[in-house]
Amino acid sequence: MTDPWVALEPGADPAERVRVLRRAHETFTTVGAVPRPVRSVVAESWRRSARAGVVPDGTACVELSDGDLGAYRAEHPLARVMPLFRELLGTFAAEDEQLLAVCDAQGRLLWVEGHPAARRRADAMNFVPGARWSEAAVGTNAPGTAVALDRPVQVFAAEHFTRRVQPWTCVAAPVHDPRTGRVLGAVDVTGGDGLAHPHSLGFVQAVARAAEAQLALLAPTRCAADTPTLRALGRDEAELTVQGRRMRLSRRHSEIVLLLSRHPEGLTGDALLCALYADESVTPVTLRAELARLRRSLGPGLLDSRPYRLTAAVDADATVVERRLASGALTAAAEAYAGPLLPGSQAPAIVRLRDRLARGLRTALVAQRDPDLLADWAHAPWGEDDIEVWRALATVRPTASVRSRLAALETELAVPTARAGGWAGGATYLQRPRA
User: Fold this and answer.
1) C-alpha distances in angstroms, 58 versus 28, 61, 132, 167?
2) Cis bond before residue 307 (omega within 30° of 0)
3) Angle, CA 432 vertex, CA 429 and CA 435 arms, to 5°
4) What is the reported pLDDT for 224?
5) Is the distance from CB of 297 to CB of 253 less than 8 angstroms?
6) Could you give the angle at the alpha carbon of 319 between the alpha carbons of 316 and 320, nearest 5°?
7) Domains of the chain
8) Considering the chain, what is the average pLDDT of its residues?
9) Is 304 helix (H, G, I), strand (E, B) or coil?
């Protein structure tokens, strides 16, 4: 096969390939070996699915329904390009007894539309809005694997990991936020063997690119006031964007801008001193010099004094996470959390903010016990030693790799009582043995 991303090479017999793939799937689920001619992308996905504890005879779980689903879809960025998806793919899917599906970045289906007969068949395997079809939940499938790999994917028949999905063929491509490059989700077409064609892969990818282009055109309407944005999660030096100009702030300036963004009424010099410096010997002169340098970096008009304040509202990524968490949109909050808030900062006020944000998010994750969200946190740099999250993950996804990691942590860490704080991300860790 010349292109490993295309399911069937020209001239291949689909029926014979299905028979071969079914035998290969049975071999893998029995002995763990992947025989030829299974494509490498599929073989690797099967292995990831098995490590995630996916059961070949399992099915997807519906996580959102009714009002919860409607509210979540209404706020999702891909809602803005659903008319485009319907125009480009909807008629095509309906006429060929296929389905148009759109999922979020966690593989949760948001829309499933198309031919009525195909929808009835899809309902039987929970290929419905609100169901989680991530690779880690139901194994190899086009929308879930496209999100996992961040690239267009074609999955043919018995290449699907879950047996009840093997009568279907699907092709999907990820859709990205044009401003940040972050994966928003994927657009998918699901139907019969005819989708195992290079043209379908290219077509769906082109639709995804068209959606990104439309999102880029729509973006200015959301930022008509040119609201400055501050990105401080997961980075020691924040990035401030003002009227299209991006600037990388020093560590101290990052702290000052973040604190002022949270206090639109302003802060006195004394309040800023207490917030920034644990050392009481730091003088107001030092702070004034720092603020003068910051004012020159920002340009005229953005930083005012008496009290010190920003003259424009700043949209900070940490505030976005807080808003989503407060509204109960846990998945969206976890998606927006790019890491600990200014992780290298030791400014007292920043440490408190960082710990509070991380603690609030991880507490919600542990309480909800969503296996994908817990796994995302546990495998992130700030969660790799977070034993409470690993314990929660082990209860909902007790795979060999999870149990092994948990056992290693429990062996390494002596005290079985968690404490808040830990690494600069604010995650909870066990106290290590003292020398």
Assistant:
1) 16, 9, 13, 15
2) yes
3) 160
4) 40
5) yes
6) 90
7) 14-222 (3.30.450.40), 229-316 (1.10.10.10), 322-430 (no CATH)
8) 87
9) strand
Output the furthest CA–CA distance in the chain (Å, rounded): 80
What mean pLDDT comes out for the span 228-254? 92
Distances (CA, A) of 318 to 51, 136, 230, 333, 382: 33, 28, 9, 10, 16
Tens of pLDDT along 28-71? 999 989 888 899 999 999 999 998 889 999 999 998 887 888 88
Q: In the prediction, which pLDDT does 370 show? A: 87
Question: In one letter, which amino acid is 86?
Answer: R
Give residue-wise pLDDT tens across range 415-426.
Answer: 444 443 333 333
Q: Which secondary-structure segment (H or E) carries 290?
A: helix 284-298
Is the per-residue pLDDT at 12 higher than 50? yes
Contact 137, 125 (CB under 8 A): no
Write down the residue that tokens 């998806």 correspond to: 85
Beta strands 303-304 and 309-310: pairing type? antiparallel
Helix (H) or strand (E) holding 185: strand 183-191
DSSP 54-96: --TT--PPB---HHHHHHHHHHSGGGGGHHHHIIIIIHHHHHT
Q: How confident is the model at residue 388 (pLDDT cuts 50, 70, 90)?
A: very high
Bridge partners (DSSP) of residue 247 are: 240
E strand or H helix that includes residue 171: strand 169-176
- Between CA 152 and CA 166 the distance in angstroms is 19
Residue type, 83: P
Taking a C-beta distance cutoff of 8 angstroms, is the pair 166, 22 a contact?
yes
158 three-class SS: helix
Residue 120, token pair as written in the block:
């009835």
Decide the pairing of beta strands 229-231 and 315-316: parallel
- If we measure between CA atoms, which residue out of 286, 290, 278 comes closest to residue 251? 290
Half-sphere exposure in the Cβ direction for 163 (13 Å, CA): 11
Residue with the two structure tokens 């079914």: 22
Which amino acid is it at 186? A
DSSP track, 5-51: TSSS-TT--HHHHHHHHHHHHHHHHHHS---TTS-HHHHHHHHHHHH
**Predicted confidence (pLDDT) per residue in 183-218, tens digit:** 899 999 999 988 888 889 999 999 999 999 999 888
Express as a percent the part of the chain with pLDDT over 90. 53
